[in-house]
Amino acid sequence: MKCFVCGEEMSPFMEKFFGLKHLDACRYVRCSGCGLVVAETLYDMPREDWELLNRECHAYQHTDALAIDPRWLDRLHAQADVLARLAKVGVLEESARAVDFGAGDGKLSDYLAEKISAPPLMKFDAYMGDENFLPPEEMSPASFDFVITCSVFEHLLGAADVEKIFALLTADGTMALHTLVCEEIPRDPNWFYLQPVHATLWTNAAMKKIFRRYGFKACAYHVDARLWLMMRSLEKFSRLKNLAGFVVAEDFVDYWKGKPYR
Ligand SMILES: [Zn+2]
After folding, report:
1. Of the N and C termini of the chain, which has fewer Cβ atoms inside 10 Å?
2. What residues does each domain of the chain span?
3. What is the CA(3)–ligand 1 centre distance, in A?
4. How many helices and strands, by DSSP H and E, does the chain display?
C-alpha cells in the first residue's frame, strides 16, 4: 500500500494482538518516506466491521478513558483556557463560526462556555450527540472560521477523512489539533498509544506535509494543552505569537523530537 500523505511505499512494521471480537491481530505498516504508520488491518476492514469495532471499544474506552490518559480532564481545561485566551487576543473572534469536530460528550465546549460567552464553540460528533449538536448537513465545506479536533486524527482512515475535516475551514481559517505527533513511531506492540481504534499514527514529517498541503502559513503549539494551531492568516498569527506558553513557527511546529512521547 502507498502512503496517503506522501505517496511512498509502506512496508510491514509490526503486529499486535488485541483479542477482541472484531479485532484479533492488527498489522501495522510504515511509510519509508514520512514515517507515517497506519493499521493496515483497520484500513482494509469493511466499514460495517469498523463501526462494530468502535462500538465494541466504546464502553471500554469510556470507563477506562482516565486510566489510559490520566490527564484527560486537566488537558480539556487547559485547552478551554487556550481558546479563551485566543478569544481575548482576537484570534478566535466573537463573530467566528467555530466547531469542536468529534466533540464526544461535548465537555470542551461546556468548559469554554464557562469562560467566554462568544463565540459559542459548536459541537459535532458523527457517533454521539443530542439536539445541542450540529447535524451532519451543517458540516459543509468552507463554513467554519475555526475548527478544533481533539483525539480525532488518530482515528482517521486515510486521505478522504483528513480532507473532510480540513475542507470545513474558510480560506483564512484556523485548525486547532490535539493528537499524538512524534518524530518516530516506536516499533513496540506495548506502546500505550496502540489502541484498537487508533488507525493512523502521525509523525512530524507527515504532519508537516499535511500542514503545507492545506495552505497553512504559521503554527503555534501550546505545550500544556498539547494543542497545535495551524493558521492561514499571518495577521492572526501575529496576535498570538508572543503569548506565553506557545512555541511558534512559520511551518509545522515539530515539538516532540525525543522519547518518551508523553
Ligand atoms: Zn509517507
Report:
1. C
2. 10-184+197-249
3. 5
4. 7, 12
